[in-house]
Amino acid sequence: MAFESLTDKLQNAFKKLKSKGLLTEEDVKVALKEVKMALLEADVNFKVVKQFVSSVEERAVGADVLNGLNPGQMVVKIVNDELVSLMGPENAELVFQPGKSITTIMMCGLQGAGKTTATAKLAAKLLTKGKRPLLVACDIYRPGAIKQLQINGEKVKVPVFEMGDKNSPVDIAKAALEHAAKNDNNVVILDTAGRLHIDDEMMEELIRIKENVDVHQTILVVDAMTGQDAVTVAEDFNERIGIDGVILSKMDGDARGGAALSVKAVTQKPILFVGMGEKLSDLEQFYPDRMANRILGMGDVLSLIEKAEENLEIDEETTKDMASRLKKGKFDYNDYLESMKQMRNLGGISSILGMLPGMGLKTKDLEGAIDEDQLKQTEAIILSMTKEERANPKLMSLPRKGRIAKGAGVDISVVNRFVKQFEQTQKMMKQMPGMFGGKKGRGMFGGLGGMKFPF
Amino acid sequence: MAGFFSKIFGGYKQIDEDFYDEIFEKLVTGDVGVRTSNEIVERLRDQVKENHIKSPEECREFLKNNIKEQMRLDEDAFAFEKERSVIFVIGINGVGKTTTIGKLAAMYKNEGKRVLLSAADTFRAAAAEQLGEWANRAGVEMVSGKEGQDPSSVLFDTIQSAKAKQVDVLIVDTAGRLHNKKNLMDELEKMNRLINSYYPLVHRENLVVLDGTTGQNALNQAREFSEVTKLTGFIMTKMDGTARGGIAVAIQSELKIPVKYIGVGEKITDLKRFNADEYVDSLFE
Ligand SMILES: Nc1nc2c(ncn2[C@@H]2O[C@H](COP(=O)(O)OP(=O)(O)OP(=O)(O)O)[C@@H](O)[C@H]2O)c(=O)[nH]1
Ligand SMILES: [Mg+2]
Fold this sequence. Notes:
The complex is a heterodimer. Chain A is 55% helix and 8% strand. Chain A is an alpha/beta fold. Chain A has 3 domains: 2-87, Four Helix Bundle (Hemerythrin (Met), subunit A); 103-296, Rossmann fold (3-Layer(aba) Sandwich); 301-449, 434 Repressor (Amino-terminal Domain), CATH 1.10.260. In chain A, strand 5 (217-223), helix 9 and strand 6 form a beta-alpha-beta unit. Chain B is an alpha/beta fold. In chain B, helix 4 (56-71) packs across helix 11 (276-283), helix 7 packs parallel to helix 8 (182-198) and helix 9 (217-228) crosses helix 10 (247-255). Chain B has helices at 4-10, 17-29, 34-50, 56-71, 97-110, 127-138, 151-165, 182-198, 217-228, 247-255, 276-283; strands at residues 85-90, 115-120, 141-144, 169-174, 203-211, 233-237, 259-263, 271-273. The chains are: A alpha/beta, B alpha/beta. The interface between A and B is large, with 44 and 46 residues. Bound molecules: guanosine-5'-triphosphate and magnesium ion. The site of magnesium ion has 6 residues of chain B, from helix 5.
């Protein structure tokens, strides 16, 4: 069975959320419970999830619900923002030694994490940036490891230094640095054997390399598919060896990649690159926002949030204008038309209802009330009114209705029904001016979640 | 008694919500996954009622026994070891296929069988070299080709050789491939068909290798590889680390694929036949 998206899961949670000005503790709790499960399914470590959720909870309770979002979405927005900032920065870079000095990079990680491949990819990347890298074969244990690095080096046209499997990695690293100095290489990348973080002897080996040669950057390679144990591994490597950055491998798979968050949370070290394939050019920059999106698994909700943010910026002016008119007790056909336009701006009502987790459930109930056809009809009716009629609803009379019906191409009974509906809406709007930007950050569609449409 | 249950049961006089929460946490932190963990906890609730289980200790034994029962292998799970067989080893990159094949080869060889290896990973740099080293260590023969050669042709050559030499076990190493790459999965399917047509009368064992440190994605891997060939089991490697490999429970629950061997290190002897009791005990440690 395929992974059930967070969007689906949040359906139920959001259904229970009420739409009020500020996020209540209840709103936040309900939504975060689903977020928590989604993060766990994405393999984010249990403790990391717990901590993350409680920090978001603190931030979210009492926050304003943005224009155009329902409370559930607002929580998701906050969750996403937090995730992105936790996972950042976006443009973390390897730090090189100044001038002509050699920069030494040591790669480390568990067995099968993808170090040898990542090492060659990194060399290829540095080559294109004008560096003169040297690859060093320090994995003297795994059969075929030296040969693998040599072949990869050949492919990316980077020299490989090796001394077979009879010398210690410390001696190999030392000799490699001399070799680099003689051969004008300015970056030395040490490929080390995969090892378990609890293998004292093997961890000691890395420490000894660091004691004997100047390692400027230690990079931990982490398989993006790693489960709950990612924190233990990252913590151990960081505490015992000290790491400066992370490369996430196998990101071209379909894992949600929660390990990225776990590792970042426990080490606070930047994620430098992501491995996106078996080709040696497949090492890409890390984008915290894409990663957050992938872990949360809810691109659809996020793009909706983005859209709402954009549109409501534009509409803010009109909304303010309407609000001030409404405060004076005014609501006419022009306002009605305007509010319909706002709805359209959000991308078409049916599509919006489908996209909103909390709304999806209600689509059926609302179908009759606000389907697109009916909106078009309503629009046609209003557009068939004269300017005066639109600005002054009181002018409406039977002969006028007859003329409008003809203009809109509908039966007079349809116009009658609409006028009645309008009058009810007018009454309703006057009773709750708060719906029109009464509070900062909330326009009439701030209430989408539990709203009553004036249509 | 040390370990998880004594810790959590020690603290609980009765079976309440906190108690269930802790079980859920223990399962999830062992990589069992949210869905399967929820199912297990829900089932446990019912069973506690039905069986009038009162004490946390009783509940502990009950749960562990349940999972052990579920994970236990059929009696004929290793029948193939006694027959002429071909073992098709597949899985994503770096999970431990080649190493495991080396260990399997040594194990069968020590049991007096004639073993032949097929170096059908012609993709990864130095893959044949690596398997060759294992063949040497185990003292078995290997058929290989050139890097970049069609792996099916290497496999074909190996099958011919296996027939000529009347070997007992033929083990096929394949290149690691992500299960979401269609062309590579198609290539595997082609190899599968080749075995069907050219080596049909021997016992067929199709094993997917999964890394014990992998999280929920291992379920996707098992599912996708079982589209290529009917999996008869899986091998979980790297169980010598701190990961508890709980995803095996999810895979058994959802796909009914049993664990047959586990890898516990990089030495040639670091392979064990799966033991449900030990596994479940350490899952809850
Ligand atoms: N600690 C530990 N390491 C293991 C185990 N099994 C394999 N490894 C290590 O994992 C790494 C990858 O193993 P390989 O056998 O090359 O994996 P593979 O699946 O053949 O890899 P590709 O062919 O590149 O896809 C090596 O460093 C192995 O030594 C195990 O049970 N425990
Ligand atoms: Mg291999």
